[in-house]
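Fold Annotation — chain and its backbone
Encoding — discrete vocabulary of local shapes
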Amino acid sequence: MPYQKKYLPLILGVAIAAGIFIGGKLDFTDSPDRLFSTNSKKDKLNRLIDYIEYNYVDDINTDSIVDVTVNGILNNLDPHSVYIPKEDMERVAEEMKGDFVGIGISFYTYKDSIAVIRTIENGPSSKAGIKGGDRIIMADGDSLFGDKLKDGEIIKKLKGSINSKVNLKVYRKGEPKLLNFTVKRGKIPIKSVDAAYMLTEKLGYIKINRFAESTYKEFKTGLDKLQALGAKEIALDLRNNPGGILSISEQIVDEFLEDNKLILFTKNKRGNIEKSFATNKGDFEDGKIYVLIDENSASASEIVAGAIQDNDKGTIVGRRSYGKGLVQREMDLGDGSIVRLTVSRYYTPTGRSIQRPYDKGNKDYYDEYYERLESGELLDPEKIHVDDSLKYTTPAGKIVYGGGGIIPDVFVPIDNSMQNETLIFLQRRGFFGNFVFEELEKDRFAYNNISRQEFINTFEVGDDLVFTFQDYLNLRTDSKITFVAYHEEVKQYIKATLADQLFGNGAFEEVFNQRDIMIDEVINLSNEE
């Protein structure tokens, strides 16, 4: 798969595919007979599909008709009830589980072969001796190079059952012949915690990109590490986090809230209410917490921010969050596909729903981002629309609002330099990653004697590299690109991408955050304490 760094503003619609979709404590009291009994409306739909299959003049794939019909039905419900076809289920399940079985490399198809960007630390390929820059030419005798190489086919050849072995032939620059490696496949984590490191002597930083089954364990590992380093305060970065599993967000909140504090409650169509409370398991109840959010922080991210804010526990920093207060449950459709159906709403501890309206249809719902942009809300907190009828008060007397996202306690405007649309596009499309890979290919040994922390703290990208990148782009795009106004920002992107390809494990974030105005605001708030 082409290399793309996941630290990027998300497309707003990503909240459809993620969001909160498992209501673990929800109960369905209707019997199967009642839920699936025959009625004229269901018969009409089944009969129409049969008519098309047996009598329509042309051959038609009725499976595709069913998919269109299911999507059409769900589009008339709410923006977050979605259908996931069978062919997408493996990928979706892996993302939510947080791991898959493979050989443990980060790669992309470079020219006509698989180029290893880096191996996963302590993963199967790392243990076997494969290195960044290697080209995997063959797997079990099958060639993995050529103009018609497709990522899906590559992944199928490299994946397999756990502990199974795959024989690889690898080209390594400087070696006279192909190298042979036997790699035993293992579980490879899909990390949901991008970074965990210290911002100051007392302030730790943790970034979570989604809430998967493995997220709490990753988060707890990071929290324990930071506490061992002396962290008394935590900046929890949930920007661009579209959500995930409800129970995981509850576990993370539990680390910060005192025993028996309300985290949230849910209400279904029958009015049944289920409440979730903090337990005695929290290890950071005495610490200070800052939660970073933006317009792409959704669902489970909003549960965390809402619980912290409504319990007067910490400080919410950033911009108004997405505004998703619906809970989905996965339901099997019998053919390997599923539907994530909205089954309840959730409410923050003060009783507010932060779900924004969707009565005007899905298009208007997802276009709200542009309304926020055009209204100036992303630059000026005075432009945030609030509804006085949805005003709530926290135990300490702070006013909070429902009706469309979590409004931060401390507003930070969007940074139009580091979040420049052109730079984001270049990062998302892999231009920075490809360029950095080619630069490393010229002389990887030049970085052998520099440590991760030394690179992050002292390495500087020269002006010449920015101009080289500019020439690189102009050879590969139709437009003439210059970085006169964003020279320093481009340097930061290049350095962060270099750090990621050389060291991984949060190095990108640690470099990129050095120019992050929201991080700077949190550090200032911490220093004022």
In short: The first helix runs from residue 14 to 17. The chain has a mean pLDDT of 88. The first strand starts at residue 82 and ends at 84.
